[in-house]
Amino acid sequence: MRGKIIVYINGGPANISGALKASARSAQDFVSFVESAGAVGTIAIPNPKSMDVPWDRMRLAASQPGMRLADVELQDSHRPLFTATWNPAHADELLADSNHRIADLLAVADAGKPMPHFDLKPTLKAPVVTKNEQVEAPNVVGILRGSDAKLKSQYVVYSAPLDQVGVGEPINGDKIYNGALDNASGIASMLDVAEKLSKSGVKLKRSVLFVAVCAEEKGLLGSRYFAQKPTVPKTSMVADLNTDMFLPIFPLNYLVVYGTNESTLGRTSRQPPLRWMSVSFPIVRRIVTSSSEAISTNFIRAGVPSIMPEFGATANSPEDKGQAEWFNNRYHAPSDDTQQPTDLAAAAKFDKLMLQLVERVANSSEKPRWKPDSYFRRFAQPKTSE
Q: What is the pTM of this model?
């Protein structure tokens, strides 16, 4: 692949676990592979079945500037790489004279089979001009000190992204991308839980770190920096509970918890009488964005067990269709504002569940552990005293 552009379809075959897919698609591993193969760039073709956001909205993101961490140790790429996303409706242009058609390849992907590998005939000329400037973006961190003489030096991380697109290409004349549910709602939930815990007088055994991370929309940069260079000893972080776009747009009857199969946090997160769904990373929705990861992945790669709860729905239910409609019309759009229908009672119920989850993890006699068969166990931190 030296000197070539790698064209790929988002996803992965069924014989690869969700955890392995998440790790392989992480920016660190994927870009490292591209560079080591000698490729000069990549083109991603989204699978239409996973495209909650229509192409006409996806392409608006092309005007957004990219961003990378100034710390060279934490940068994914170390030389220029061309990257692009290709409209699947026109993917046959890339496949010309290859004896393959996009419809056939998507059928292979939808069947969960391995993708064939073959050379493509077309060449691509893409003049690229870059303008570099230095900016600063803060992570905001608060600590609720634990009370146990032995366990207070261990930290339960409650994380949520604080950024959004901000100003983007106008949609219906509006260029302010408010980000009310993505992810002001998650930050509001974090603040609500932090306030209740600090005013309740309840003494938690472990300390709690409330971490609002920046530059999530630019490639999970704030969480990567904090997970690798935290303001507390790295090995003292014992769990990450992440909240991102939990979408309180209907009553909370199902709780989806990403990452439950990987660590003992999955058992801790069960919340009767809610119906509870176990889902592996990577996150199925948001596959059309710059990353199929979540902030959780950066903490996982730092050795910290992590889960991410959010509202769930059964397939083809009114709630499921409501979520699809939200992604189709409001995700990364100005209409994600405070005027949209929101179930405040359901949001309050979610906050209560997150508060209970924080309490259970902080007060557990044992810290969370990776399951023996978890792929992510390889990132486990060195054992320390309990």
A: 0.90
